[in-house]
Design a protein that fits this description.
By secondary structure, the chain is an alpha/beta fold. The chain has one domain: Acetylglutamate kinase-like (Carbamate kinase, 3-Layer(aba) Sandwich), CATH 3.40.1160. It contains eight helices and eleven strands. It has a nine-stranded mixed sheet with strand order 4-3-5-2-1-6-10-11-9, with helices on both faces. Helix 1 links the parallel strand 1 and strand 2.
């Protein structure tokens, strides 16, 4: 295995499947099977999931809502997604723990770094919900922060595109895919990998980011075994 401990970042929108909003049961099952495959290979898996399929704080703010209120609503949306993913994983026999940056002890453990690491060592999948617990920070930043805290080997950003391109491949047929990039090149080329706070945090802590297509069956396993899938950003 190339990576022993990973932080998998999933967008909330990915859970919609072909729907316009909400959670697709089929997509959840697909993801649960993919994650189970790598857990059975001995990989320690932590997950951060967005909430954009339910609510996005920035959108609420743009429509006149208080930004802090909107961001807190977004954090609650990530908890709904976390509960759904936890249920799907346990349905296929994967032990999980859901930890929340905001205390809600009836449904999740509070985020405690040492406890999270212990769960990972016992090969439980740990889902980190509620972002960082603070407004004005995205789930990309939460993913990077948690990855650093648990000493993950890499952040795997699962998207619907198979890597980082010179332009949006869905809009520009001449877009070129990069196999590897340095953090400096991403800055210079103005490529959109993660928000700048998350990206800078990764760079400063020498934490590589690998962007890949999570919706292609078998891709997650290929990534953790070291196959050339997606685009790797490193120092």
């Amino acid at each position: 295995m190339k990576y022993k401990r990973i932080l998998l970042k999933l967008s909330g929108e990915a859970l919609m499947g072909d729907q316009q909003f909400g959670i697709s049961g089929e997509r959840l099952k697909d993801y649960a099977r993919e994650i189970k495959e790598v857990v059975e290979e001995g990989v320690e898996v932590a997950i951060v999931i967005g909430g954009g399929n339910i609510f996005r704080g920035l959108t609420g703010a743009s429509e006149g809502m208080d930004r802090v209120q909107g961001d807190h609503m977004g954090m609650l949306a990530t908890m709904i997604n976390g509960l759904a993913l936890q249920s799907a994983l346990e349905e296929v026999g994967v032990m999980t723990r859901l930890q929340s940056a905001i205390e809600m002890d009836k449904i999740a453990e509070p985020f405690i770094r040492r406890r999270a690491v212990r769960h990972l060592e016992k090969h439980r999948v740990v889902i980190f919900g509620a972002g960082t617990g603070n407004p004005y920070f995205t789930t990309d930043t939460a993913a990077t922060l948690r990855a650093i805290e648990i000493n993950a080997d890499v952040i795997l950003k699962g998207t619907r595109v198979d890597g980082i391109y010179s332009a949006d491949p869905e809009k520009d047929e001449n877009a070129v895919k990069y196999e590897t990039l340095s953090f400096k090149e991403v800055y210079e080329k103005g490529l959109n990998v993660m928000d700048m706070t998350a990206f800078t945090l990764s760079k400063e802590n020498k934490l590589p980011i690998l962007v890949f297509d999570m919706n292609t069956p078998g891709n997650l396993k290929k990534v953790v075994t070291g196959e050339a899938v997606g685009t790797l950003v490193k120092n």
